[in-house]
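Bench notes, bay 3.
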Amino acid sequence: MIPTRRTQRSSRLRHTQQPGVGATSHREKLSPVAETPVRCGMSRIETDFQVWDDRRILELVEDPADSTKCAFAVGENRRTSFTDQVDHRGQIFVPFPRQTHDFEHMTLPRSVRPYDSVEAICYRARNFISNCVSLNEVHSFVLATFVLYTWFADRLPKAVYLVITGAPQSGKTTLLETLKLLCRRSLLVANITTAAMDEACRFCPTLFIDEAEWTSDRGSTNFRKQLRAGTNRNVWAKQLRHSGHSFCPKVLASLELSDDAALNSRCVRIPMVETDRTDLWKPWDPQVMKIAEGLRGQLLQLRLERIRAIGWKRVVGSETLRPRSRDMLESLAAPLDGSKDFIQLLLAFFGETHDPATQEILSPDQSATLISLWRTVHLMLSVQSIQIKNLARAVNAIRQSSGERGSINPRKLSNVLNSLGLQDRVRATGGSNLNLGWKACTQIHILRRRYGWDHPEMPTFSGCRFCQEPSSEQASTRDKNSRPH
């Protein structure tokens, strides 16, 4: 018979009393997993995390009595116990061995600690980071929210990346080592292949990649492609007899940003400069590591208590952000328990710092086309459409004035217009015409706001209501057969 009552189940859990969470600092030594007796008919399953409907939560930790082994932290009704096996519905769940590939190098918690509030943990993480590296206050708070987020990233649909840039000796590696002490299941590497990344990400670690290089060879191209796909938990890589994904939080350290605009827009950039401070803590100092261990214990207790309630939530005020920035903001804000101060700080950071820094740049052909159309809709008010071949002449004149070589023909210009979302064209006697009605004018103004807000050749026209409208939705409520003026 399988025991079901709490008293029967508790007899197999060797409790470790932890101050403030039903706990003592000493515990009976765990028996080796291999020597644990298994009753006939009960299967044995290795796992690293489970949430069950009987209110128990299993989280893989380092065995408090033996750092060469793994154990389970079992959270139940705000109490935490440690054990080397758990019975559940006729099955024996055991932790992965510490020597399991990737787990042997991950930083795991080994205790639980009481905490006052989510805000208190964030402030403590922020102070710890500020004592180890020299950063401005905003970036240190953003990093503190990232630390908290990593402990719940496996429950959220989008992964957040950090990219740390700076000259040599600016503290990039030190920041990686500092965050490694705090984030969930930290794994620090200096080089990793795409296959190894898929292997490591099956445990949803926080992956730290030092000395990332952005070259044009095939390996780097595949690496960037995998990073881009790794922000979405529903994207899988299918290979012969194997499938995997690269979804997990990541921190990339490099001398400079990648030239991949799509990847940059998925990353929160933390720039670093060399400092003259001599009072900074060393992340490898035993005393610093002890402080970090206590903070990891608080983060573990927070995860065990709140993991069921964590999920995607819309953040009021994020509507003005671009989609990827909004996804990252909502992921970072999910564990903050509605803390208005931290959420407002994140809103300000993404709106004022992150979005402008990751603004994509149009190609020369796209930029020249947008400038030409901008002039047409504002300076030629009676024109309701324009021939593609005439637009090509105007685009080529702008290209030549900016020093671009070659020219663009009407066929290629049609492809450029398609890439800009301008597809309302009709066949005419002299060739195709681009309609410049309300829909095209709205799209042209959206493109200008998105890619060329400060462009000197695309000024704001005071008499144009499209220029004055803050959003395309407001502009689209106007007379759909009218021009901007």
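Next record in the batch:
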Amino acid sequence: MALTEQKPADLVVRPVAWGLVVGMLNVAAPVAIWWLDLATVHALAITLIAAVYVGFAVADGRPKVIAVETAVVLLFLLIAATAVTGSAWLLVIGYFGHGCKDLWQHRTQFVTGTRWWPPFCAAVDGVVAGSITVLILTGVQFH
């Protein structure tokens, strides 16, 4: 089915399904990058995830959008950098906060041309925020 023939639900259901899969891979990423602690791996991931919107903003081309998305990335970078040596709850805040930003983006289309990305990314963020919460509550050490 061509993109123009897709049902509106397909523009949300498929990205969310893939987001759940990628979210689980994100949760498992520290196993593959064993030489870094959990907090560092997830801090890097939060920053990478947030930075994708800068690419979308550049493609959008409006200076205001580029400036706002760059400022948002800097906020998530600050949260992530603090989480490297601070509380692991900052990782939950970072992923949860970014998921909320994704939902806002999906609703408003502030950055044009993102169509499937916000629901995909919100699913990734939700899986990781929830998983980190469970890990913290079960006593897993992030540093």
